[in-house]
Every structure is written in structure tokens, then in C-alpha cells.
Design goal:
Helices cover 33% and strands 22% of the residues. By secondary structure, it is of the alpha/beta class. Strand 15 and strand 16 form a beta hairpin. Bound molecules: zinc ion (2 copies) and fe (iii) ion. The site of one zinc ion has 7 residues, from helix 3. Residues 112, 114-115, 133-134, 136-137 line the site of one zinc ion.
Length: 758
């Protein structure tokens, strides 16, 4: 006796080869029925014997295609079709336009094994074709104009499939069934190499590119979500030349390596690191440098960011060419968005690149590479972008449609639809017009592919942020201003599906406080509606405001002045005093006295700067968090070196006083204590005092769930030290694994708070 079952699958199941997968599965278990794309995913009906249906249902989630994300599977018994209405086969039914409303577009995914094999198979018709792809791999998000996701709505619309490609596209048993970017040598996109003048040099574009790279040239290469500037990573002079032309002082470069074995020539890899490198999202993975020989690639820290080839073109750059590692840095001038358009690249990058490797498949939306690092027990995002966007984050409950516009630095936006929050790609620092344009473009595009137009907008309280100003310029919307650190904690709550009250430790560089000062070393008691500031680092002046961020010695002087008063000079070792820029010191002293241009801050990032300036002689920096990275990099691994003291003052709102810390550091400097030991004592001391302050709040409130968020938690040493202490003291600790702890995750928190404050 045959049975019939109706199955609904929600999640990322369209455009990822899911229907042919179900088709093959139904055939394997001799089932009839049908499948179609539905409102929220796919709807399947199957009919057959009970054991066959059971086997089908067991296999369904286990063997799903790599890009599919199954969020929910529901099944219901229905009446079998018998007699004249009985089917003889399993069918893929056409989907209707109206069924696109709740579907999810897949992120861009690295070339799969099957395609990579075909690419290098001389007998394959796509041998060496740089745009080979299938339903399991290839571009998605970056080529989609709007939904439904089919070829006409993508930048592949201008390429007409040849009969061979069309036959694959139409065959449910083919790996390229409904693969929208399907193409080949005969019908698809092609490469073109040009010099700065736009003239093509003779020869095959790819072979010529490889020759130029081996010769030490800088080539701008059009990729998946934008252009990279590429140069052979094994040629220090060429790398220095790229640094010089790009105006990129000491900031590390990302390196694309041929394979994991080429990665382990540069860095030490754990099994988890290899797994992260080889994951279908292919993020940049921060890894420990093997030797100082590669310091020219990343001078400050212990880390190098490595990633593996993720497009067929990348694979070809490394396939039997002799190249094993290429610097592949986002093609832009300093902090501008990554270039995506051929002509735009030629004009914007003409002073940097010697040659340009173009192709004629348009990138409709720029999307930078993602960056992750492995901490004990979890993988943490530094930047969540290509490969992950626009996959949603699941929320604890259904939300109204809301747009959250994020902060200023490392901006991302976030849009909710039902139980999903869609975090957009990395936009970068909203400090210039082109970043602002990208920000607006990204808001428009995300709303378009999700088919929502939110009437509620959440923004940061900082009146000067461009994102805040954008929000205030929108009409007919309900605006919700959200405090920066409250948003950080809410973002950690969101991804851990917490809804009650928690203690939130938010540590970062800066965020606008409700008292108008720059907060950044905060312990909050918060839920998704409100927060109370329960503790913070004591206020310290930032002499020269933004100047104090670029010149960490100013923060050191500010702390020394707070600790020792006017005769701070007498307390310093003369050798250290001699390193300070004398005329500027006078000016800073004046500022501290009068308070002019010296806003107060409780920032933890600035505290790191001050300590790094003293311990590592990091007097100035050329990129964000550079001093803190140097301090972390030199940290002594031993944990029994003692911890520096802090003091706690106040009752209702605790204040963490750093004066005992600076007294102790200066004492150690007099005794020539190594920077690594000073760094360790500082990390451990900070973890101790944050634990103590938290435990006092635990006692007062009875809460024991602690959320850790903010960019400072990218520091693995502090993260581990604090987490270990809190857990030992009986707290349940929640951290980030789906969005970055830094400002890249801010918009998710803003969104949750706006939903609950309504
Ligand atoms: Zn493939
Ligand atoms: Zn073709
Ligand atoms: Fe922040």
C-alpha cells in the first residue's frame, strides 16, 4: 500500500541544485511525486512504500548539496494518488513569479571539486575556461540584480547559452541544471589583459598575466566581488613597490596561496585552520607566521591573512605556473570601496597597477573578502562579507521589517524579514563620498533582493556619523536611535538567541555615550529594550581628539599625567622620556591643563594604545588598532608572571581606575622589564579587574549570563583570559561566532533593539 507525504523545506534551497538533488533522491528510492519552489523554500510531494519514504526522509538532510542551508523541514501525510490520477514519475514543476517573495539568494561560493577537476582536464570542453561553474559553485550574490534568481536578472543576461550549455541547463540530472551563470568557451565571458593605456599586450591574456606576475609586475585582477591588486608574495621588492604605490604604510596584506601546503610554508596551521581555509566560503584566515622572514607582508603582528583560490581564474593562476603565493589585496586607494567596474578600475588604479586583467561578466555588487580567525573552541569573524552574505542569521522570533544602518567604521547594514536578519556585506569606513555611495547602494540592493521596504530605521546615536545623517534624511519612517555599546551587546544576544537581561561587557575604540563622551570600556546590564551603565573605565582626556588615536603616545601621556600629576616627567626613565617628540609634548601638556580639544573617553582601545606606546614604544600608528596588535603580538605566553593592579571606585556605577596600572608599568620600565612581560601583566590585570567588576554586578543583580562584544575582543589573549576567569567564577559566557564582535556586527544589534523598543 503506497503512502504520500508532503514535505516543506525552508532555508537556502533555491539556486543551489536542490531540486535536481531531490529528483535524484526520489529516483533512487523509486518514489513518484513532484517538487516546486514555494513561498518559503521548496514544497515536495512523494509517494511510494513506507520503507522507501522513510529512507528518503532520512537521506534528505544528510546528503543535501553543499550550498543548501536547511533551516526547517516539516512533513505531513496526505492522501495517496490512486487510480487514474496516479503518477508514473517524479516531476520538477515550474515555479511561479509570486513564489519568490520569501526565497533566499545564496552567497557566492568557491569553485567546487568537480569543476576544478574539469578545469584542468584536457578532454573536457571547458578545459582552462576561467568561468566554469555549476549549481554547487560560482557567483550568486554579486551578479544578481533582483529576484527571482534567474539568468535574466543577473549580469549573465547578456550571454546567450550555446546549445551544449542549454542542454545541461535543462537536464535535471545534470550538475548544471538551472545553474544561472552556466557558460563555456563558446558562449560565456572572456578575459582581456590591458596595460595602463588600455591597450592589450600581445599573447594569451592569462599566460601573459602569469608571466608578468613572475616578473614582479603589479596586476589588477577582476575577481568575484571586486578587483584585487596582485603581486608575487615571494618578491619583497615587488611587494614594497605595491605598498609604496598604494600608500599603505605597514598594514598587512592578504596572501592567496596555491594550496594548504603552500599555506604551511608561510604559517603554522591547525586542523581547524585548514578546514577554515578549505571551506566553501574561502575566507581569509588569520594564521601565525612561521618565521620573521615574511615580516614584509605583515610587519606588526604575529599573523598573516591567507586564503585559497576561490574562482576558476584564481585556480589557473596557480595551476603548474610556478606561482605559490600572491599578495591579493582589495583594489582601492586607502579606505575607498573596492573597485568593480573595468573602466573605473582603469582610472582609479592607473597609478598603482601596471596591467589590468579584465573580464566581461559584470560585478553588480561589490563584496570584499571575508576574514576569520580561530580561537579556542570557535571561529570568529573579523569581517563577514563574500561567501557569507546574504545568508541570514536566524532570530529567536519573527520581526517586523526593519533597516539598521550600522555605525561609522567597518560599516554594515542589516535588514529583517520574518525570523531572519540579513547582514549586508562589508562597506568599510563611512568617511568618504564613495563609501557613502556604496552604503546607499547596498541598502537599495538588499531591500530589492529581499523585496521589503522597512518603515523602521535603527541608527547610532552619534550625530556626526554619515549613517545617522542618512537615517535622519528618510521620510515617512519611524527612527530609533540606539546607543553604540548597547547595540554591541544586543548583537551578541541576537546570535545566541538570548532575550532576557544579561551583563554585557562591551570593549572597543569608541562609541557615542548618552552623556556625550566617547565610551568604549563598558559593562552594561542590558536587555533588548534598555540598558543601565553598570561599570566603565574611568574617563581619560584624549589630547588632540583624533590626533590621540593616530599618536598613541598622547594617550600614554594623558594617563601618566592623571597618575602622577604635573611632575610626571620625574617618574619616567630618562631613556623613555627622550623618545617623546618634545615640542608636541608641551602642547599636549597645555591641552591637559586647560582641557581644550581633549574630549573625555572611557575607551578600552585607547587604554591599549597608551600601554603599547610605553611597552612597545609604539608612538604613532598608520592604521586602526596597530598599537594594540603590536602589544598582543609581543605578549609573553606564560600566565604566571603576575597581573597589574587597577582600582574600582563608585557604587551605583563602578569606575575602573587605571592609575595603579600606570604606576606599576613605570616601575617595570625602570627595571627594564621586557615588553612581552609588560604586555602579559597588562592583559591579565585587565581580565582580572573586568572579572571583579562583573562579579560585583552579578552579586547586585543576581544575573549570571555575560555577553562579550566590541572590537577589542578580536584580541585573542584578552578574550581567552577574560572568558576563562568568568567561567571559573560561575558565569555563563556568550561570545560571537556568526557576526564580528566589532562594528561590523553593530547593525544586527541595532535591529533587535529597534524591534523591541517599538
Ligand atoms: Zn562546480
Ligand atoms: Zn556554452
Ligand atoms: Fe564599537
Amino acid at each position: 500500500m503506497n503512502q504520500r507525504v508532503k514535505i516543506e523545506v525552508r532555508g537556502i534551497v533555491q539556486g543551489v541544485g536542490f531540486r535536481p538533488y531531490i529528483y535524484r533522491l526520489a529516483q533512487r528510492f523509486h518514489l513518484t511525486g513532484n517538487i516546486l519552489n514555494s513561498e518559503s523554500g521548496v514544497a515536495i510531494e512523494i509517494q511510494g512504500t513506507a520503507p522507501d519514504i522513510d529512507s528518503f526522509l532520512r537521506a534528505l538532510p544528510l546528503e543535501a548539496p553543499p550550498l543548501a542551508q536547511l533551516h526547517e523541514i516539516s512533513t505531513a501525510r496526505i492522501d495517496p494518488r490512486i487510480g487514474p490520477s496516479e503518477e508514473s514519475a517524479f516531476l520538477i514543476l515550474p515555479s511561479t513569479r509570486s513564489s519568490s517573495a520569501n526565497t533566499l539568494i545564496s552567497p557566492d561560493i568557491a569553485t567546487c571539486k568537480d569543476c576544478a577537476t574539469e578545469l584542468l582536464d584536457p578532454s573536457d570542453r571547458r578545459y582552462l575556461y576561467p568561468f566554469i561553474n555549476c549549481t554547487n559553485c560560482g557567483p550568486r550574490f554579486t551578479i544578481v540584480r533582483s529576484i527571482p534568481y534567474d539568468r535574466a536578472q543577473t549580469s549573465m543576461a547578456s550571454f546567450r547559452m550555446c546549445p551544449a550549455c542549454q542542454a545541461e541547463y535543462d537536464d535535471p540530472l545534470n550538475r548544471r541544471f538551472h545553474a544561472q551563470p552556466n557558460a563555456c568557451w563558446d558562449c560565456g565571458p572572456q578575459l582581456e589583459l590591458v596595460d595602463r593605456a588600455g591597450a592589450p599586450p600581445p599573447g594569451d591574456p592569462l599566460a601573459e598575466t602569469i608571466r608578468l606576475l613572475k616578473q614582479g609586475s603589479i596586476v589588477a585582477i577582476k575577481g568575484l566581488g571586486g578587483f584585487h591588486l596582485a603581486v608575487d608574495a615571494h618578491q619583497p621588492e615587488a611587494v614594497q613597490e605595491l605598498r609604496r604605490r598604494k600608500g599603505r604604510g605597514e598594514k598587512p596584506f592578504a596572501i592567496m596561496v596555491r594550496d594548504p601546503s603552500a599555506a604551511s610554508e608561510l604559517c603554522l596551521l591547525t586542523q581547524r585552520d585548514t578546514a577554515s581555509l578549505e571551506s566553501v566560503q574561502r575566507p581569509i584566515v588569520l594564521l601565525s607566521k612561521r618565521t620573521a622572514a615574511f615580516d614584509f607582508l605583515a610587519p606588526d603582528g604575529n599573523h598573516l591573512g591567507l586564503f585559497l583560490p576561490y574562482t576558476p581564474l584564481h585556480h589557473l593562476l596557480f595551476a603548474n605556473t610556478g606561482l605559490t603565493a600572491l599578495v591579493m589585496t582589495s583594489a582601492n586607494l586607502s579606505e575607498e570601496p573596492i573597485a568593480i567596474d573595468n573602466r573605473e578600475a582603469l582610472t582609479r588604479l592607473s597609478t598603482i597597477a601596471d596591467f589590468f586583467l579584465f573580464h566581461n561578466r559584470d560585478i553588480l555588487l561589490r563584496c570584499d573578502d571575508s576574514v576569520v580567525q580561530n580561537l579556542p573552541g570557535r571561529t570568529q569573524f573579523v569581517r563577514r562579507s563574500r561567501g557569507f552574505v546574504p545568508a541570514p542569521i536566524q532570530l529567536h522570533e519573527s520581526m517586523p521589517s526593519i533597516l539598521a544602518v550600522g555605525g561609522e567604521l567597518k560599516n554594515t547594514i542589516c535588514v529583517s524579514r520574518g525570523r531572519y536578519a540579513f547582514l549586508g556585506q562589508h562597506i568599510g569606513d563611512l568617511e568618504n563620498l564613495s563609501a557613502y555611495d556604496f552604503f546607499q547602494e547596498s541598502i537599495h540592493h538588499l531591500q530589492q533582493i529581499l523585496e521589503v521596504s522597512p518603515k523602521i530605521i535603527a541608527y547610532d546615536l552619534h550625530p556626526g556619523y554619515l549613517s545617522t545623517q542618512w537615517a535622519h534624511n528618510q521620510h515617512d519612517t519611524h527612527l530609533v536611535g540606539v546607543q553604540h555599546h548597547h547595540a554591541h551587546i544586543a548583537s551578541c544576544m541576537a546570535e545566541n538567541q538570548l532575550t532576557g537581561k544579561v551583563i554585557g561587557i562591551a570593549l572597543d575604540g569608541t562609541g557615542y555615550g548618552t552623556d556625550g563622551t566617547a565610551w568604549g570600556g563598558e559593562i552594561l546590564v542590558a536587555d533588548l529594550q534598555n540598558f543601565e551603565r553598570a561599570a566603565h573605565l574611568a574617563y581619560t582626556p584624549m589630547p588632540g581628539n583624533a590626533q590621540a588615536i593616530h599618536e598613541p603616545w598622547r594617550m600614554a601621556l594623558s594617563h601618566l599625567w592623571q597618575t602622577f600629576g604635573d611632575d610626571w616627567r620625574d617618574h619616567l626613565p630618562p631613556s623613555l622620556l627622550a623618545t617623546l617628540p618634545r615640542p608636541a609634548v608641551k602642547l599636549v601638556e597645555q591641552m591637559l591643563h586647560t582641557g581644550t580639544n581633549s574630549p573625555l573617553t572611557s575607551s578600552c582601545g585607547r587604554l591599549f594604545d597608551a600601554v603599547a606606546a610605553l611597552a612597545c614604544q609604539r608612538l604613532t600608528v598608520s592604521y586602526e588598532a596597530q598599537a594594540a596588535i603590536a602589544l598582543e603580538a609581543c605578549c609573553d605566553p606564560r600566565t604566571n608572571l603576575g597581573a597589574y593592579p587597577f582600582a574600582i571606585e563608585g557604587a551605583a556605577c563602578l569606575q575602573i581606575d587605571a592609575r595603579p596600572l600606570f604606576t606599576a608599568i613605570v616601575e617595570d620600565l625602570h627595571h627594564d622589564v621586557a615588553p612581552g612581560i609588560i604586555s602579559r601583566r597588562f592583559h591579565d590585570g585587565l581580565a582580572d579587574i573586568l572579572t571583579e567588576a562583573t562579579l560585583r554586578i552579578v552579586q547586585r543583580t543576581g544575573l549570571d549570563h555575560v555577553c562579550l562584544s566590541g572590537g577589542v575582543f578580536l584580541n585573542a589573549i584578552l578574550s581567552n583570559a577574560l572568558e576563562t576567569r568568568l567561567v571559573r567564577a560561575g558565569c555563563t559566557v556568550f561570545t560571537h561566532s556568526q557576526v564580528p564582535p566589532g562594528d561590523g556586527g553593530l547593525s544586527l544589534g541595532q535591529l533587535l533593539i529597534a524591534a523591541h523598543q517599538r
